[in-house]
Structures are given as C-alpha cells and as structure tokens.
Amino acid sequence: MPILRGREGELKAIARLPEAFVPSTLPIFEVPPASNDPIKDAYAFTKKARDSVPLGMTIAVDVGHLGDSDDRWRGPLRDIAEDFALWGVPVRPVLHLHDSSRRLAEAREATEMHTGQTVVRLGGDAADPDDEQAEGRLAELCRQAGTTIEQSSLVLDFFEIRSARDLGRVEPLDRKCVAWARRYPWESITVAAGAMPKTLADLPKNAATPIPRHDLALWKRLREPDLGFGDYGIGHPEMSVGDGFPCPTSGIPTTTCGGYTDGRGRQRQQGHVRAMRLAGRSRPLAS
Question: pTM here?
Fold first, then answer.
C-alpha cells in the first residue's frame, strides 16, 4: 500500500503501473496543500488524477493536510468523492482518530457514493499508532463514517524510521499494535513507514551510495502472515507545502530488496520524471 502525494510525479508513476499489479494495489493519495483554499486544492488533485488512475484501481484519499472549507455546504473530501464517482473511479476515504464530526460526515457521504469501504490510518507525522487510544475511539469512528471494521483496511503508520536504533524502538510498539489489530476482523492490516532521509546532501555525489531500507526491515522482522507492507515511495514522509516535488533531491534514487541507492549527478535534468518511473516499477506492493 504505497502512500503517495497527489502530485504529478506520483500520478505518472501510478499511470505506468503494470496492469498485473493494479487489482492488488490500493494507493493512499495525500492531497497536498498547494494553496490556502482546500476546495481549490481538492480540484487541483482530481484534475491531475483524473486520467492517471488505471482502469480497475481503487484509490484511498487522505485530505488530512487540508483545512475545512469556509462554505459549510462543501468540503474537499466531498468534492473529490463526487468528481471520481462521475468518472467511475472507486474511492475510499481515509479516516483518522482525530477527525472532526464535519470531516467524518464528509467521509460518510464519500462511502455512500462509492464502495462503503474506508482506510483507517493510525499514526503519522504527529505520533506513532496508539492501540489503546484506538480501542476507545474505533467503534464511534466507524459509525460516524458510515462503515464497519469489516469494510475497512487498517494502516499502522510509523511515519519515519531513520536508523537501526529507531527500528529497535519501533519494532516492539509495532508488534503490540499488530497484536491488538488481530482482535478485529479488518479487511486487511498494513504496516507503513518511510526510510528516505529529508536530504542527501551529506552523501557523496557521482557515486552509488546505499541507504538502508529500515521501513522494509521492520515489516520483514514481524514475519506476520497476511500483513501488508506500505511505504512513502522515494520521498521523505513529511508533507511539503506548495507544488514542489517531495523527493529529497533532484537525483535518482533507485530501489533494491535491501535498500535505496542514491545516484546523484547522473541525468540530473530528468531526475523528477526518472525517479517517479522507478517508484512506479520498483516499489514492493501490497494491498
């Protein structure tokens, strides 16, 4: 389950996804706050995504980085759901424990327009997933959003794993959260994190430099049956404001089973497109 920004590079990568992977891939698109107008940002995302989502793919949409509209009759999630319903693209709203009643009402409308299914995302940039907090909020969250646990995919998002030490800290917490999640009949359970640093400035240029994939190492350590893997592609997990490309440099990180390789200095002028092509072809995929 890739967690992607709803920007041109990531959408191009999804458009190029091999057809065989489409049914088993449920990407989460985070709608970027490119302006101070959430309705405008929602429209910008749908306009870009309209021709990029492959036929037969369901996407999850996370508007958590956008504010609420001043117009009480409109909202970014509602507008996105309406547009994609007209185009025949199935959408799942992404739910957070801290979502307001207004945002959950929009999610309910989105589920009614589409499949009735959602993605529940615990954790993220503010805090690690908290199973005890989720336990007390989960039933009401699903009720307000018009869905059930059986119709929801759970994402345990640990945001950023920067080092082996960080990996050691996160692993027991992850095991605890997965054990809690197994008590419920989720449609699927995914562990997600990012490992790409904010900057590659300290790495040597014009040389292939390995960057450990601590996000993938976490998932492998768990060795849990039917546990999905999610990551943030080749960008740092933090959402940037504006239309900038989220990759840490204009270089071309590639991926292998054990780590990233930074190849800065080669075909620098094509870094944006080439990097996203690699993301579309080389990421581990899980629904």
Answer: 0.82
